[in-house]
């Protein structure tokens, strides 16, 4: 029986496991205003466990992916990972999306006062007792208590340099299939997926439906998420960060409409893409236009 795109968005055929890569799917299920997104061309996923060559080869041979866009921070990327990817003839770009110092100033105005006081006192106590290890652990524990709704907006508010580098690389390499990913393939990946989708003509409701597919994809990995946050000094409540909330995308959409009017204006006036780069992305990622 034939299924239309509204059916596909609920149960996308392109969601499957590739070795240790989970929450993996194609963006082709997004409905756009003109034409459609090219099948098997734009992929997203989570690479938290990925450290081996087999998974890289699987993506390259099974899905013909030619470009890896790694949104993880340097401490999340395994040593030698770039060399493994590039050794297979795959273009690789690592773009940690959250600028550190700008995020510090941003959080000062977003995080409740007493949360900061608690974090400051713990860190100060550790330093006064020359316990550097305790200082590091206290900061890691504090960081896992910050809701992502306060943290990830830093990307679209202040990540001009990071977004310009990422989307310029996409414009240069999007003539072949590519994948973008973070650790869980949810929030950083979800926000970039929303940006790509909107740039290609999807509205916010389409982007939210696609984003929420991670609810199902990550359902079986909550235990892993708990262990992940324990490793970084957080308590078990930290795993709540791995649960999907579409507030991030909806706030981004409101921000775009209020400050820039259109996604095109956001990319040209803030991110710094040229009209030619935007046209190149659309030309290579859409069909039937």
Automatic annotation (TrEMBL):
<dbReference type="InterPro" id="IPR029021">
    <property type="entry name" value="Prot-tyrosine_phosphatase-like"/>
</dbReference>
<feature type="transmembrane region" description="Helical">
    <location>
        <begin position="104"/>
        <end position="130"/>
    </location>
</feature>
<dbReference type="GO" id="GO:0004721">
    <property type="term" value="F:phosphoprotein phosphatase activity"/>
</dbReference>
<dbReference type="InterPro" id="IPR026893">
    <property type="entry name" value="Tyr/Ser_Pase_IphP-type"/>
</dbReference>
<keyword id="KW-1133">Transmembrane helix</keyword>
<keyword id="KW-0472">Membrane</keyword>
<keyword id="KW-0812">Transmembrane</keyword>
<dbReference type="Pfam" id="PF13350">
    <property type="entry name" value="Y_phosphatase3"/>
</dbReference>
<protein>
    <recommendedName>
        <fullName>Tyrosine specific protein phosphatases domain-containing protein</fullName>
    </recommendedName>
</protein>
């Amino acid at each position: 029986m034939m299924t239309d795109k509204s059916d596909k968005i609920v149960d996308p055929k392109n969601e499957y496991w590739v070795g240790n890569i989970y929450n993996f799917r194609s963006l082709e299920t997004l409905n756009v205003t003109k034409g459609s997104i090219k099948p098997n061309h734009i992929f997203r996923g989570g690479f938290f466990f990925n450290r081996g060559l087999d998974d890289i080869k699987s993506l390259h041979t099974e899905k013909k992916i030619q470009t890896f866009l790694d949104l993880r921070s340097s401490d999340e990327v395994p040593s030698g990972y770039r060399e493994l990817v590039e050794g297979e003839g795959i273009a690789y770009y690592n773009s940690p999306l959250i600028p550190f110092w700008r995020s510090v100033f941003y959080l000062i105005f977003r995080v409740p006062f007493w949360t900061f006081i608690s974090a400051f006192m713990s860190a100060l106590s550790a330093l006064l007792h020359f316990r550097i290890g305790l200082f590091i652990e206290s900061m890691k524990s504090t960081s896992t208590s910050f809701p992502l709704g306060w943290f990830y907006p830093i990307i679209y508010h202040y990540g001009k340099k990071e977004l310009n580098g990422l989307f310029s690389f996409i414009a240069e390499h999007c003539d072949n299939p590519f994948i973008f990913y973070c650790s869980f393939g949810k929030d950083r990946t979800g926000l970039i997926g929303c940006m790509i989708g909107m740039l290609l003509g999807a509205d916010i409701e389409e982007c939210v439906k696609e984003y929420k597919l991670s609810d199902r994809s990550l359902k079986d990995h909550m235990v892993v998420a708990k262990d992940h946050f324990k490793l970084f000094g957080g308590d078990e409540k930290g795993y709540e960060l791995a649960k999907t909330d579409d507030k991030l995308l909806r706030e981004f959409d409101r921000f775009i409409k209020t400050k820039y009017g259109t996604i095109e204006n956001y990319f040209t006036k803030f991110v710094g893409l040229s009209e030619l780069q935007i046209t190149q992305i659309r030309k290579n990622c859409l069909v039937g236009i």
